[in-house]
Amino acid sequence: MARPPTIAGRARREGLIFGECLFDHFPDGDRVGGAPLNVARHLWALGQQPLLVSRVGQDGEGARIRDLLHTWGMDARGLQEDPQYPTGSVEVLPDAVLGHQFLILPRQAYDRIAWPAQLPALSRIAFLYHGTLALREPGSRGTWERLTGQSDWRFVDLNLRAPWWTSDLLATVLPGTRVLKLNADELGTLAQAFSLQGGGRQSRVADLAQRFAIGEVVITHGAEGAVAWAGGLWQECPAPVVRVEDSVGAGDAFAAVWMVGILHGWPVDLRLIRAQALAAAICTVRGALPSDSAFYAPFLRDWGLHP
C-alpha cells in the first residue's frame, strides 16, 4: 500500500465518498452527475483525496465516467463495474416552481455497490460522505452499513428523491451523523415523518439533532443563503449575488467545502462563507461541474489550499 499523503508533515487517512455515479439527461443534452461524484470531484480539486466508491455498468456511459475521473486526476479504483445493471440514468425536467424534477430509474449499477477491494476489512475511514438514493436497495445498503461501522464521522447529504426513501431508512441513516445537510423542504419532510416538536425551524432542528445525536445541521436556502446549527448555536450567511447560469450542483459544492473546512479546522462561520462562495460560483457555469480545473485556482489561493 502506498504511503498516505500528509498535511503539514502529519500522516492523514483519507475519507470515502459513497453513492451514485450517473448521467443526468437534460432536454438539451447529457451531463455526468450524481451528488457523490460531484462532491468527490470538488474535494480532489481542493486538495483532498477521498476514495470514490460507486458502480457503473459495462457500457459507454460507464466508460465515459471512468475516463473523466482519469482526466481530473482522481483515483478511479473504487469505481466498480456491473455486468448486468446499466450506469445510472436520470431524466431531468425543468420545473417553474421546483427548479427541476427528476425521473430516477430503478435497477441501476449503483444499487449494487460492493465492498471496495481497496479497503482492508478492518481499516478505519477518516470520514464517510453519502446521501440516501444509493441506499434504496439491499445490495448497496449492506455495503454502506459496513462502511458506517468503520468511519470516524459521517456527512449525510439528504437529497431526498421520491419514491426512493422511507421513514425507516431515514431512521437508520440519521443517528450519530456529525453533519446533516438538507434544504428547507426536506426539513419539513423530516418534521412530518418524525413529528418534530415546535412549528419553527430552530425548534425542529434542535429536536431533530437531540433525537438522532446529530452534531451539526446545515440548511441551504438557494439564493437566500444558508444557516447552520452547531453546538446549540445558530449562524446564518447570505448567498453571494451572482449571475446564475443554472443551480445544478450548487449544494454538492457547498457540501465539499464544508468537509474541507472540518478537515482544516475552520470555524462554522468561515465554513458558511466559503461553502456559499463555491456554491455561488458553480451557479455561474453550466452544469454541476466546471469544465476547466482553473476554476478552482482562486479558491485554492485565497483559502491557502494545495491541490
TrEMBL record:
Occurrences of domain Carbohydrate kinase PfkB (ranges): 31-289
Protein name (database record): Carbohydrate kinase
Assigned protein family: Belongs to the carbohydrate kinase PfkB family.
PANTHER family registered for this protein in UniProt: HEXOKINASE FAMILY MEMBER, PSEUDOURIDINE KINASE-RELATED
SUPFAM superfamilies: Ribokinase-like
Alphabetized GO MF terms: ATP binding; kinase activity
InterPro entries: Carboh/pur_kinase_PfkB_CS, PfkB_Carbo_kinase, PfkB_dom, Ribokinase-like
Pfam families found in the cross-reference section: PfkB
